């Protein structure tokens, strides 16, 4: 038998400890007005976005820059691959935008996260076909 208790059986203090330990990989905004630059940071999920992070693992410049050797403008992503893999292995959850960036650089697979059962295609119909039934006409006036 498993020694893990369901979440409902835990005390408030134990639940608070579980929530407190959640770590996220997210973007922290820096830069000037209309020229944002983001640090990719590892931080406690309950802390504010601009608080001191546990670790800065990279930067992301969301403003496209035209480089002389490329035809299209590119967005700059610099990332410490080893530390990113370390934190993902420790259970850190990337936010939606960071997950998109990690897929672009090849750290996360394209199918991450796994599909939930709610988003899968339904093979068999849930509701039967609608059958048309002719209604009985109702008299609008009362009989006397």
From TrEMBL:
It comes from the Eukaryota. Keywords: Ribonucleoprotein, Ribosomal protein. The keyword Ribonucleoprotein applies. Pfam families: Ribosomal_S16 (PF00886). GO terms for cellular component: mitochondrial small ribosomal subunit. Belongs to the bacterial ribosomal protein bS16 family. This is Mitochondrial ribosomal protein S16. It comes from Candida verbasci.
């Amino acid at each position: 038998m498993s020694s893990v208790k369901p979440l409902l059986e835990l005390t408030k203090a134990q639940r608070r400890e579980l929530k407190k330990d959640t770590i996220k990989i997210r973007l922290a905004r820096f830069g000037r007005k209309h020229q944002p630059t983001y640090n990719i940071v590892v931080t406690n999920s309950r802390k504010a976005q601009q608080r001191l992070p546990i670790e800065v693992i990279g930067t992301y410049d969301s403003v496209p820059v035209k480089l002389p050797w490329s035809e299209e403008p590119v967005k700059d992503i610099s990332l410490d691959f080893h530390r990113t893999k370390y934190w993902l292995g420790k259970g850190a959850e990337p936010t939606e935008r960071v997950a998109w960036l990690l897929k672009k650089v090849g750290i996360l697979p394209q199918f991450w996260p796994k599909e939930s059962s709610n988003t899968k295609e339904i093979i068999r119909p849930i509701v039967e076909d609608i059958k048309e039934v002719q209604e009985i006409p109702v008299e609008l006036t009362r009989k006397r």
